[in-house]
Specification:
The complex is a heterodimer of chains A (344) and B (127).
Chain A lengths: L1 E3 L2 E3 L7 H10 L2 E4 L6 E4 L3 H8 L12 E7 L6 E11 L2 E5 L5 H15 L5 E4 L4 E7 L3 H6 L3 H4 L6 E6 L2 E6 L8 E7 L3 H10 L3 E2 L2 H10 L34 H10 L4 E7 L10 E4 L2 E12 L4 E8 L8 E6 L2 E8 L8
Parallel strand pairs in A: 3-13
Antiparallel strand pairs in A: 1-2, 3-9, 4-7, 4-8, 5-6, 6-7, 9-12, 10-11, 11-12, 14-17, 14-19, 15-16, 15-18, 16-17, 18-19
Chain B lengths: L7 E2 L4 E6 L2 E6 L1 H7 L2 E5 L6 E2 L4 E7 L3 E5 L4 E6 L9 H4 L8 E5 L11 H10 L1
Antiparallel strand pairs in B: 1-2, 2-3, 3-9, 4-6, 5-8, 6-7, 8-9
Classes of the chains: A alpha+beta (344), B alpha+beta (127).
């Protein structure tokens, strides 16, 4: 167990990170992701408050759908948090920030609700009331169907309420592994029963270690590494999360200025030939000159070699040959398109 | 936690097996469990002369990197090159196929300064 954002989380279960990683790419695993916050934003003013607070445009989707979005710093446009919004009911949204950001997001939503005007909005942190588990992998739906066929049928980026075991689950076709699957929010007092049922159905439990190697292979950013203070969505190749034309939102002005000038750096994927993992903080060099540093790096279990993410100058492009200094050894590396492992 | 009685141990969690005046070294079951899945092992060069406690190898897992130190001073006479493609042997068989290298010690009596199984057990259970 390791401390993570105020929670005690398992780094791995007895099978180990590599076995859990492979099970997710080729079978089905379940992660306990209860550390993700849930801020329930409800009321007639909820939609308007979220539109002002977050970068993406909820009018692109409908109730019963989920959307990936960002909360920006109002001054410099950097990504304070990346968030999944589950639009559960017409006037009720479950906003899911990262573990350490729940209070910050709740506060920002309250401010935007006040700024949006008169319509009533309630933003309540309900994280402690529920657990969330993510069932992921090519066999996730098949195995989950033995527990709940209705939950297994919830398609990608759809949100549904599903009766199960004397309670009601909120199920969304979302995840963070680059594989198909769903995430299930369950009232805390039914969480153990759901977990046990999933394991009995042949789903392997997986920990933070596999969650990190899976998201890295999938090229997905992790807050505190590829997103955070000083990093904008444009630098992280996530301009698609920004709805420029929906009206005002936090950080828009700073982002418009950056768009006009062009971002000074872009998130790139790097691959090495050997098994040695590039690590966070390792300098990336072009002909001996530092041009960035690794934000996340590891051994890719699926590819069998090192992979890394780094913010590099815009002129560092796919195919460029660079080096990564791993504790004094210059590892040759090459810029590649993301993701490292394609979603199936 | 598996701790063979016939080995000596360092406080840095290496094991040492005396074989015909040479010592084979690796990392303990405790060390491999703490490291997690090993994905890369940096090998010393055959012929390298090492001071006691000098870095002899780097072992990298999916979560961290650990330096491996020479339990005794001496010259590297063999390395486990199979680890290049199968570093998971450190996890699967830390006292057997997961050995790292063989050192010809400058002074074989230096082994006397290392821990026996019982002393090493007290070390890890106290930590």
């Amino acid at each position: 167990m390791v401390p993570f954002g105020g929670w005690e989380m398992p780094l791995s279960y007895p099978d180990g990170t590599l076995a859990e990683h492979r099970a997710c790419r080729h079978g089905a695993v379940v992660f306990d992701v209860s550390h993700l916050g849930t801020v329930r934003v409800s009321g007639p003013g909820a939609f308007a408050a979220l539109q002002r607070a977050l970068t993406n445009d909820l009018s692109r989707i409908d109730p019963g759908r989920a959307q990936y979005t960002h909360l920006l710093d109002p001054d410099d446009g950097s990504v304070l948090d990346d968030i999944i919004v589950w639009w559960v009911d017409p006037e009720s949204f479950d906003v899911m920030p990262n573990a350490s950001n729940t209070a910050r997001v709740t506060e920002a939503l309250a401010q935007e609700a006040a700024a949006a005007g008169t319509a009533e909005v309630d933003a309540t942190d309900v994280t402690g009331e529920r657990a969330v588990v993510a069932v992921q992998g090519p066999l996730a739906r098949e195995r989950l169907a033995a527990v709940s066929p209705e939950a297994a049928a919830v398609s990608r980026f759809t949100v549904a309420r599903v009766p199960w075991g004397g309670t009601v689950l909120t199920v969304a076709g979302t995840g963070y592994t680059g594989e198909d699957g769903v995430e299930l929010a369950v009232p805390a007092d039914h969480a153990t029963a759901l977990w046990d049922a999933l394991l009995a159905a042949g789903v392997l439990p997986a920990g933070l270690g596999a969650r990190d190697t899976l998201r890295l292979e999938a090229g997905l950013p992790l807050h505190g590494h590829e997103l955070g203070p000083g990093i904008t969505p444009l630098q992280a190749n996530l301009a698609w999360v920004v709805a420029w034309d929906k009206g005002p939102f936090r950080g828009r002005d700073a982002l418009v200025a950056e768009r006009e000038q062009g971002p000074v750096r872009r998130l790139r994927g790097l691959v090495t030939d050997g098994r040695r993992p590039p690590r966070e903080g390792s300098p990336v060099r072009r002909r001996g000159t530092d041009i960035g540093e690794v934000t996340s790096g590891n051994f890719s279990p699926e590819l069998g070699h090192g992979v890394a993410l780094a913010f590099l100058p815009p002129d560092a492009v796919e195919g460029d040959e660079l080096t990564i200094d791993v504790r004094g050894s210059e590892l040759p590396t090459r810029v590649v398109a993301l993701p490292f492992v394609k979603k199936r | 936690m598996h701790l063979p009685d016939d080995l000596r141990y360092s406080s840095d969690h290496e094991w040492v097996r005396l074989e015909d005046g040479k010592v084979r070294i690796g990392i303990t079951d405790y060390a491999q469990d703490a490291l997690g899945d090993v994905v890369y092992v940096e090998m010393p060069e055959i012929g390298a002369q090492l001071e006691a406690s000098a870095k002899v190898s780097e072992v990298e897992s999916t979560k961290s990197v650990s330096d491996i130190y020479a339990p005794v001073a001496g010259r590297v006479v063999a390395v486990n090159s199979d680890l290049a493609d199968s570093p998971e042997r450190l996890n699967d068989d830390p006292y057997g196929e997961g050995w790292i290298c063989v050192i010809e010690p400058d002074d074989p009596s230096a082994l006397d300064a290392l821990l026996d199984a019982e002393a090493y057990r007290r070390l890890i259970e106290g930590s």
